[in-house]
Structures are given as C-alpha cells and as structure tokens.
Design brief:
The complex is a heterodimer. By secondary structure, chain A is an all-beta fold. Chain A is built from no helices and eleven strands. Chain B is mostly beta strands. Chain B is built from no helices and eleven strands. Classes of the chains: A mainly beta, B mainly beta.
Chain lengths: ~110, ~110
Amino acid sequence: NAGVTQTPKFRILKIGQSMTLQCTQDMNHNYMYWYRQDPGMGLKLIYYSVGAGITDKGEVPNGYNVSRSTTEDFPLRLELAAPSQTSVYFCASTLTGGTNEKLFFGSGTQLSVL
Amino acid sequence: KQEVTQIPAALSVPEGENLVLNCSFTDSAIYNLQWFRQDPGKGLTSLLLIQSSQREQTSGRLNASLDKSSGRSTLYIAASQPGDSATYLCAVNPPPGNTGKLIFGQGTTLQVKP
C-alpha cells in the first residue's frame, strides 16, 4: 500500500517557468489537499478537493492551479514561477473529511525558484 | 481568525527524560486537534487525534491532552529516546469541521541526546 505519492522530490525552476507537481493516492480517499511549508513555519493550505471534479481555494491559492479528474490524482500547477514560491509542498488525503479521520501526507516536493 | 502557536520552537533533552510539548490556539471552536511528527525530508505522520469532546488520547509513550476552554493542548512523551528526535506539529480542525482543512502551528523541533 503506497499511500500518498508525490513527484518529483526536488526541483529547481527559473523565474517565469512552469511546472506541475504530481500527487496520487491509492487509498480511495475522496478528500485531497495541497499545503506548502516555508522554513520555520507551519503548513498553509493552497487548494483542496472533496472529490473528482470539485476543487476549492485554501488560504494561499494565488499563483497556483489544480484539477481533479480522477479520485486518485490531484496535480498542482505553477504557471509563472516566482521566488516567493520557493517552499516544500505537501499533498495529503483523507477519506471523507470527518472529524475522526487522520490526514495522510506524501513525502513532499522541495521546490526552489531562482 | 484562528491562530495556532507552538512554544518553544526547539527543545533539546537528554535521553530518558519525560517532556511536554505545548500547543495553543486562539479560538476554542474546534472539532479536533491532531499531533503530527515530521522527520527531515519526510512527510508528516499523524500521531494522535483528539476529538473536541475528548480530554486526552494515548499511544504507547505518547499522551496528548486537550483543554478547549483554555485553548491548549500538550503532547507528553515519556522516557524519551534518540529516535524521538523530530519536529512535532499540532493542527486544529476549525468549523465547519467536515472538510479536513487544518490550521497548523509552526512546530517544535525536538532533539533527544544519547
């Protein structure tokens, strides 16, 4: 059981470049999330999805886009990379978002924009 | 706006000590609180989840307590070991409670010296 898988693990982008961070889960979870973690800070929610075809903004969505065409996959798109997007990105999932459910995280993507 | 704070940011203790990590939140209207462990270069692993109606949860050498009225939670680690060295984050689940959207503290980095 792989859980939540993120690719790539590391990436360096130049300002203005675009990329997609991949996230897939094999637990048949309905709810998926993208968080970013800046050094010494807690995680901040970028986007989330409650099921295929349904996405919504979190606390810090500017500069990012998401799509959810399948239950398993929830890619995060950076269109015009900026230095402020240098961060570690985590994908997470949970079954139904219920109050007794734990969140499962991927191992993260470390992104540097230079 | 809900804010979650963890103090201290870093803690170093000798092996065998019992220790307490603190988490405070500004709004008592939460549905649950989770404690996570984060190892360097890895994702987060949920350790304990306390529902709003509960006072504490235990798992092995870990015990987490919750006092909603005072906006505080503690994570107690008994007989600490070098393998406990990691960053510990707490996160609250605010209203509406059924989306799994968590608000995180900045974390406490624990070092247990042999």
